[in-house]
Design a protein that fits this description.
By secondary structure, this protein is an alpha+beta fold. It has a single domain (7-278), classed as Glutamine Phosphoribosylpyrophosphate, subunit 1, domain 1. The chain contains 5 helices and 11 strands; from the N terminus they run βββββααββββααββα. The chain has a 6-stranded antiparallel β-sheet with strand order 8-9-2-3-10-11, with helices on one face. The two termini are 27 Å apart.
């Protein structure tokens, strides 16, 4: 029995802290209501190596603080939108018990008492979260009041989900976002999650004909999601984690890679640079 604690990237908890972060960390509207965080993320599994991974990008400072949770040999969870960070550890605990991802989604949401946040409404119908187990089985939930546009999509050994999603297009001169918002053609289902799934699935083989590490495939998924519209507010931070029993550097380390880009105009590009550099260090699957 392992005594090692679960590895977690706490993404989104940054939005629950009253810190004067730069740019778009924690926002409030004209009535003082806190704006829910928006993000797009992917959970993935490599059945050849047994590695479990996840990656995320958002227009908030230090997205590597609450969204992604992962444990080697167990699975991973993403919790975002009108976020309840406790969904992460709850999901991992249920995965350890052998519960199926679809059942975890239902149980965690049903058990949510919808307590609000700091005296404000923080409705569970705005939650978005996803679960993957150590077999690559997945499930996701996008609440009907998650920040628009919001959607999720599933593929072979992966699930992608996002909110405040945009469309491809010229930069908005007022906000600097990568897609003009609101879109002239109105709100409609986003193409970002499906593009991320395709990015993950289609990047299994690299240009040299060899299998690519899951970390590179996760980055490819983020790149595909950004190209399909990304976060309509723009880019700021990104994070990635890959876990496998004893596959990290040093003794008894289940973390193959754990990377964060906290504040950058091109966080996905910087994340790729870090992944490519980090691939020369680990003992994980090739």
């Amino acid at each position: 029995m392992s005594l090692r604690p679960p590895v977690a990237l706490l993404i989104g908890a940054c939005l629950l802290l009253a810190s004067p972060w730069p740019r778009a960390a924690q926002r409030a509207d004209e009535h003082g209501a806190i704006e829910p965080p928006g993000t797009f993320s992917i959970l993935g599994f490599d059945p050849t190596t047994g590695e479990i991974g996840a990656a995320v990008q958002s227009r908030v400072f230090s997205v590597g603080n609450g969204v992604l949770w992962a444990e080697a040999g167990v699975g991973a969870v993403a919790t975002q939108a009108v976020v309840d960070v406790s969904y992460g550890p709850q999901g991992l605990a249920l995965l350890r018990q052998g519960m199926a991802p679809k059942d975890i989604i239902k149980k965690v949401w049903d058990d949510d008492t919808d307590p609000g946040y700091r005296g404000q409404r923080w409705e569970k119908t705005g939650r978005q979260f996803a679960v993957i187990n150590a077999k690559g089985e997945v499930a996701a939930y996008t609440g009907p009041t998650a920040p628009t546009e919001a959607a999720d999509a599933q593929g072979k050994f992966c699930t992608a989900q996002g909110n405040t999603l945009g469309r491809p297009g010229a930069k908005n001169p007022q906000t600097g976002a990568d897609a003009v918002w609101p879109p002239a053609d109105g709100v409609k289902p986003s193409k970002v999650p499906a593009a991320m799934v395709a990015g993950f699935e289609n990047s299994e083989m690299g240009p040299n004909g060899q299998r690519q590490h899951i970390s590179l495939r996760l980055v490819a998924a983020l790149e595909a999601g950004q190209a399909a519209g990304g976060d309509h507010r723009g880019q700021q931070s990104a994070a990635l984690i890959v876990v496998k029993k004893d596959a990290g550097v040093w003794l008894h380390n289940d973390v193959v890679l754990r990377l964060q880009v906290d504040d950058s105009p091109e966080p996905i590009k910087e994340l790729r640079r870090l992944v490519e550099r980090g691939r020369g260090r680990g003992r994980g699957g090739q």
